[in-house]
């Protein structure tokens, strides 16, 4: 099991909004594949999966604020 966490984008990033999930529970993702869209006060960017696997949990609803280091999804290892 691998956790997907919100990255620290820039020194001043304190929070972001998880705008949209691009994957659902049961979907396979490859390493580097976008899994969600995050919006900060400066930009909207894709959150890429650092691992390959199958999405087992999405821990945050869309349009909810998240902070760097927060676990937002879990993948089962392939």
From TrEMBL:
SUPFAM superfamilies: Single hybrid motif
Keyword Acyltransferase attached: yes
UniProtKB keywords: Acyltransferase, Lipoyl, Transferase
GO cellular component: cytoplasm
Superkingdom to which the source organism belongs: Bacteria
InterPro entries registered for this protein in UniProt: 2-oxoA_DH_lipoyl-BS, 2-oxoacid_DH_E2_comp, Biotin_lipoyl, Single_hybrid_motif
Cited Gene3D superfamilies: 2.40.50.100
GO molecular function list: acetyltransferase activity; lipoic acid binding
Residue span(s) of domain Lipoyl-binding: 1-76
Keyword Membrane: no
Cofactor(s) listed: (R)-lipoate
Protein name per Swiss-Prot or TrEMBL: Biotin attachment protein
């Amino acid at each position: 099991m691998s956790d997907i966490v919100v990255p620290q984008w820039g020194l001043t990033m304190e929070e972001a909004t998880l705008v949209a999930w691009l994957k659902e529970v049961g979907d396979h993702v490859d390493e580097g594949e976008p899994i969600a869209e995050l919006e900060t006060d400066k930009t909207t960017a894709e959150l890429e999966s650092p691992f390959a696997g199958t999405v087992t949990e999405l821990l945050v609803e869309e349009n909810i604020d998240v902070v760097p280091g927060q676990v937002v999804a879990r993948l089962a290892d392939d």
